[in-house]
Design goal:
Blueprint lengths: L8 E3 L1 E3 L2 E3 L6 E6 L4 E7 L3 H18 L4 H17 L1 H11 L4 H18 L2 H4 L3 E7 L2 E9 L2 E5 L7 H12 L3 E5 L6 H12 L7 E3 L4 H9 L5 E5 L2 H13 L3 E5 L4 E5 L5 H13 L9 E7 L2 H14 L19 H16 L3 E4 L18 E4 L6 H4 L6 E7 L2 H10 L2 E2 L1 E5 L3 H10 L4 E4 L15 E2 L2 E2 L6 H7 L1 E9 L18
Parallel strand pairs: 1-5, 8-9, 8-11, 9-10, 11-12, 13-14, 13-19, 14-17, 16-17, 19-20
Antiparallel strand pairs: 2-3, 4-5, 6-7, 7-23, 12-22, 15-16, 18-21
Helix pairs in contact: 1-8, 2-4, 2-7, 3-4, 4-6, 10-11
C-alpha cells in the first residue's frame, strides 16, 4: 500500500482481516514531508469504528488464546520471512511519508525483525514453575495466560519498529492486538496488517484503527480493552497512563527524552564527534534515543565543539530517496517552525550557533520541511534549547568541569530515557553507569538501544508504568500469572478437612 507521489491514496482501517473504510467523513491530509505536497487522505475513526475493531479483537481472542504455541510460532516465523522479503518496499513507504532516508528506513525494518525473532522463541519464554510435594500429596505450579485484547498507540517517528516492539509479543502470548498508529504516516502500519494476514494470522488478531484523540480515548475507555501500550511525548504518556489505569487497564506508557552524551577529556574526541554527529542528526533528530545534549567535560569542550561544527557542515540533507542523503526533512511544517523557534531563542539567549539550520533549502524541494543540522554551544539549563524536547536536528553543548558535575546535570533532568559516556577510563565508565538515573546507558556508544532480547525503556518522566516494551518485560506485560495448587486424593481417602488456615505439612 505504498504512497505514490503521483497518485492520491485513501487510508482507512484494517479490521477483522479486511480493509475497512471509515463510517465518518472526518479525514486528514497525509503529506510527503520532502516535497510539502499532500500525498493522500486518512480516514479517522468514530465511535462505531472503535467498537467494530474492539469487537473483532474480542471475538478473535476467544479462539486465538487457545491456539497452541507451535501454531503461533509458525505464524511468527512466516511474518519474519515476509518482513525480510518486503524490506525495500516497506522502507520506501516509510521514506515517502516520514521522510527518513532509505538506509535508515531499512534499519528500522531490521529492528522490527529482531522483535519478531525474539517472539519466535515464545515457547521458552512462557515456561512456568513447578514445585512438587510442597505438602503431603500436594503440588503447586504456575503458568502465564494472555490478558485478552490489547492496544498499541504508537508515534510517527518509527511507524514500523515501535508497533513491532508490541504486536509480535502480544500475539505470541495469545492476545489480540489493535494498533492505533500516528496519523502522520499511517500507510506502513497498514502494510504490516496485510503481511500478518499473508502469514496466516487469523482474522481479528491484528487490527489497525486510524484516528486522533477520539480513537485514543475510545480505546482507553472501552471495557473490552484489557491493556494499553503507548510511546510518545511525556504529557500524552502521563494522560494515557492515568486514564488507562482509571479504567482498570494494564498500561505501559513511554514518554519523551532529553538524551545526554558525556565526553570526557580522555576520550577519543574524533571518534566521539563522528558518532555524536550521526546520533544527533540521523532521521533529522526525530528519534526518542537521539543524542540532543553533548556534555563536554573540562578540556574536551573547545576541541569537541569545533569538531562537531566541522562534521555538521558535512551532513548531506536531501529528500530520502537520494542515495547520498544523510538526513531528510522533519515530519510537518509545524515541527519545522517549532525547531526554528528554539534555535532563534538560543541565539537571543546569547548562545553560540556553531551551525545554524534555519531557512535551509533543498534544491528542487524548496517546499519541503527541512531544517539543517544545528550545533549550539554554551547552552544553560534555564534555556528552551535545553528544557524542551526539540525532536529535531539540533545538538546543544553544555560545559561542565568534572564527571561528578556531568552526572549531577543528567540526574537533574526530568527525563531518563538514554545516555552515554565517551571515555578511555574503565573507572569513569563504571561510576557513570552505576550513578546515572537513566534507563539505558551506552559506554562509547551514542545510542544505547538494546537488542530485542533486552527490554527498552527509560526512567523518571520517560516511563509511566512498571514494565518496559519489547523483550522479557513484554512477556510479563501481556500475560497474567496463575498459580495452581493441586491434590489428587485416593477415593474415600480422609482429606483431614479443617476450618483452620491451610498449612503446608
Amino acid at each position: 500500500m505504498a504512497v505514490s507521489a503521483n497518485q492520491m491514496t485513501t487510508v482507512g482501517h484494517f479490521i477483522d482481516g479486511q480493509h475497512v473504510p471509515a463510517t465518518s467523513d472526518n479525514v486528514q491530509d497525509i503529506y510527503n514531508p520532502a516535497t510539502g505536497q499532500v500525498s493522500g487522505q486518512l480516514q479517522l475513526a468514530n465511535q462505531d469504528d472503535i467498537n467494530k475493531a474492539v469487537a473483532a479483537a474480542r471475538q478473535a481472542a476467544e479462539s486465538w488464546s487457545q491456539v497452541s504455541l507451535t501454531k503461533r510460532t509458525k505464524v511468527l516465523f512466516s511474518m519474519r520471512e515476509l518482513l525480510v522479503k518486503h524490506t525495500d518496499e516497506i522502507a520506501a513507504i516509510l521514506t515517502a511519508e516520514h521522510g527518513k532516508v532509505l538506509d535508515d528506513a531499512k534499519g528500522e525494518v531490521g529492528r522490527a525483525l529482531e522483535a519478531v525473532e525474539f517472539s519466535c522463541g515464545i515457547v521458552e519464554h512462557l515456561k512456568g514453575e513447578y514445585s512438587p510435594q510442597i505438602a503431603t500429596e500436594i503440588d503447586t505450579y504456575s503458568f502465564r495466560q494472555p490478558l485478552g485484547v490489547v492496544a498499541g498507540i504508537t508515534p510517527f517517528n518509527f511507524p514500523v519498529m515501535v508497533p513491532m516492539w508490541m504486536a509480535p509479543m502480544a500475539i505470541a502470548t495469545g492476545n489480540t492486538f489493535i494498533l492505533k498508529p500516528s496519523e502522520r504516516d499511517p500507510s506502513a502500519p497498514m502494510r504490516l496488517a496485510e503481511l500478518w494476514r499473508e502469514a496466516d494470522l487469523p482474522d481479528g488478531v491484528f487490527n489497525v484503527l486510524q484516528g486522533d484523540k477520539l480513537a485514543v480515548d475510545g480505546l482507553l475507555q472501552h471495557p473490552d480493552v484489557d491493556g494499553i501500550s503507548f510511546v510518545g511525548s511525556t504529557p500524552i504518556a502521563k494522560y494515557v497512563y492515568e486514564n488507562g489505569i482509571a479504567n482498570g487497564k494494564r498500561v505501559q506508557a513511554l514518554g519523551g527524552a532529553k538524551n545526554h552524551s558525556v565526553v570526557m577529556p580522555d576520550a577519543d574526541i574524533d571518534q566521539a564527534a563522528d558518532v555524536l554527529n550521526t546520533a544527533a542528526f540521523g532521521a533529522a533528530g526525530e528519534r526518542c534515543m537521539a543524542i540532543s545534549v553533548a556534555v563536554a567535560v573540562g578540556d574536551a569542550a573547545d576541541e569537541l565543539a569545533e569538531k562537531l561544527r566541522e562534521r555538521a557542515n558535512r551532513v548531506v540533507v536531501s529528500e530520502g530517496t537520494n542515495p547520498d542523503a544523510d538526513m531528510g526533512p522533519l515530519i510537518t511544517p509545524q515541527a519545522k517552525e517549532r525547531v526554528e523557534r528554539i534555535i532563534g531563542e538560543a541565539a537571543d539567549d546569547g548562545c553560540t550557533l556553531m551551525t545554524d539550520g534555519r531557512d535551509f533549502l533543498v534544491k528542487g524541494n524548496e517546499e519541503g520541511f527541512f531544517v539543517g543540522p544545528t550545533v549550539i554551544d554554551n547552552v544553560k539549563t534555564d534555556m528552551s534549547a535545553y528544557k524542551e524536547e526539540i525532536f529535531g536536528p539540533v545538538l546543544v553543548i553544555m560545559r561542565v568541569a568534572s564527571l561528578e558535575e556531568a552526572i549531577q546535570l543528567v540526574n537533574s533532568n526530568p527525563y531518563g530515557n538514554g545516555t552515554s559516556i565517551f571515555t578511555s577510563s574503565g573507572s569513569a565508565a563504571r561510576k557513570y553507569q552505576r550513578d546515572i538515573k537513566v534507563g539505558m546507558v551506552g559506554v562509547n556508544i551514542p545510542i544505547p538501544v538494546p537488542v530485542a532480547w533486552h527490554s527498552f525503556g527509560g526512567w523518571n518522566d520517560s516511563l509511566f508504568g512498571d514494565l518496559h516494551v519489547n523483550g522479557p518485560d513484554a512477556v510479563q506485560f501481556y500475560t497474567r500469572n496463575k498459580v495452581v495448587t493441586q491434590r489428587w486424593p485416593e477415593p474415600e481417602h480422609d482429606v483431614n478437612a479443617s476450618f483452620s488456615f491451610p498449612t503446608h505439612e
